[in-house]
């Protein structure tokens, strides 16, 4: 059977997934709660996420001929699998609201402040539905297509920000606020577990895990670099930062707006593709898991239903920034620990046990 995704496409997906939420608004949030020390909890979260990526890659590698659903059902059975899928759906709905909310904040403060986001959201949800009908291969091809542009945008951002970087802004080194950030913001991390849906769909080539971990590490370094630049820039003035403050402001501060004008905007428009690809995949997973739970053959009606629910959720939590922040720092942050860490670990353990039993049975027959 032909695999839907090749190794290069999977690499592009992982690279973009690592950045999807971290570069966007998270540095500003960490500045609010931890000041110049915010890079410390960010580093801890990034290292945890790298371990999650490793778990996901191992799970994919151990199950080359089985889909995600087949692996889940072989471990948990049909009923428990449907319950777990329902939990994942809830978390992905909340993550989608978070991503859409932060996209809205970014464009409203940087470029499209006068545009009614409700109209844009309705159009975007139509695109979500259409892409969900195309399947996993369309997301993989899109990631591969835009991957060079995303890398180019990151390099250009590096060039714009490195000039006036002053690491002394991170001093003195303290840990105040670290615990608060670790407690409140796990939902902004762990965006790679959704890639478990590609289990059985990837052409696993030689050094599959090592290659993808290398790209994940490079992407993580990029996340940490831009976070450190922002902490160094605003570390002495955390009181002027509010939720929604983003890298666009920082780029202009660092490069000199009189020289570069709004040159950062097209760069961010290219980079933000990674966020949209992450949203497309999350929406597809929601619709596909709903189809599985209800035992239907076609995904289209579940995609439309998911879009309607998402529209309602956005209306409820887009009223102000505090509503979105309260939702994402509340009870969902506890559930994501299961979906992002424990679930991949359980799948790996079960796969290893089943493989060992298979080997023992095979040796017994001999």
Care to describe what's here?
There is one protein chain. The protein is mostly helical. It contains 16 helices and no strands. α2 (26-34) packs across α9 (208-234) and α7 (136-162) runs antiparallel to α13 (273-294). The longest helix has 34 residues, at 332-365. The protein is globular.
What structural keywords apply?
16 helices, 366 residues, mainly alpha, single chain, 73% helix
Topology, please?
Blueprint: H1 7-19, H2 26-34, H3 39-62, H4 68-76, H5 78-110, H6 117-132, H7 136-162, H8 178-184, H9 208-234, H10 247-255, H11 257-260, H12 264-271, H13 273-294, H14 300-317, H15 321-328, H16 332-365
Give the amount of beta strand, in percent: under 5%
Distance between the termini: 29 Å
The overall strand count is 0
Q: Mean pLDDT, nearest integer?
A: 81
Count the DSSP helices.
16
Quick gist of this model?
With 366 residues, the protein is an all-alpha fold. It has 16 helices and no strands.
